[in-house]
UniProtKB/TrEMBL annotation:
Alphabetical keyword list: Lyase, Metal-binding
Record protein name field: 4-hydroxy-4-methyl-2-oxoglutarate aldolase
UniProt cross-references to InterPro entries, sorted A to Z: RraA, RraA/RraA-like, RraA/RraA-like_sf
Presence of the UniProt keyword Metal-binding in the record: yes
PANTHER family registered for this protein in UniProt: 4-HYDROXY-4-METHYL-2-OXOGLUTARATE ALDOLASE 3-RELATED
Sequence similarity: Belongs to the class II aldolase/RraA-like family.
Source species of the chain: Thermus tengchongensis
Record note on quaternary structure: Homotrimer.
Enzyme class of the recorded protein, top EC level: lyase
Source species, domain of life: Bacteria
Cofactor(s) needed for function: a divalent metal cation
EC number(s) on file: 4.1.1.112, 4.1.3.17
Length: 164
């Protein structure tokens, strides 16, 4: 994997970028994939519903409203994401089971960890445009994440797609 978000940002100054306000909880700190989105608040039934779907080459971006009150993902959902082939999950909110998350070899970014679980009512919106940290995050766009932040492009950068 020889790309860097810094180099890609220099090459694509028009790209949307998100600063690295996230902590990396997963086994991979560098990952990339086609974006799917979710907008939820302290309810993670939809997180499970989407992660149950085939995720090969995809990254789920969850706008949890920045709430740190409940965890939107834990060890079970992280393992489910890995089993379904997801490249990563970005949570603008909290996660839990951090000791388990680091054993899961995908990208798992979140603001922080908290022990409390989320509601399971299924409220929220799937595959809607998100506005996160000043960036537009659109379903179908392509996300690349590394230690410096996240970068979004309408399509995979040339040479970047095969790099896992
Ligand atoms: O099920 C949940 O609410 C989140 C969780 O703890 C897990 O994924 O293991």
């Amino acid at each position: 994997m020889d790309w860097r978000t810094t180099d890609l940002s220099d090459a694509h100054p028009e790209a949307e970028t998100l600063p690295m306000v996230f902590r990396s909880f997963g086994g991979r700190s560098r990952f990339q994939g086609r974006v799917r989105t979710l907008k939820v608040l302290e309810d993670n039934a939809l997180v499970r519903r989407v992660l149950e779907q085939e995720g090969q080459g995809q990254v789920l971006v969850v706008d949890g409203g920045g709430s740190l009150k409940t965890a939107l993902l834990g060890g079970n959902l992280a393992r489910l994401a890995w089993e379904r082939g997801w490249a990563g999950v970005v949570v603008h909110g909290a996660v839990r089971d951090t000791a388990e998350l680091k054993e899961v070899p995908i990208g798992l970014l979140a603001l922080t960890a908290t022990p409390r679980k989320s509601a399971k009512e299924g409220k929220g919106e799937v595959d809607v445009p998100l506005s996160l940290l000043g960036a537009r995050v659109l379903p179908g766009h392509y996300l690349l994440a590394d230690e410096d932040g996240l970068l979004l492009l309408p399509a995979p950068p040339s040479g970047g797609q095969s790099a896992g």
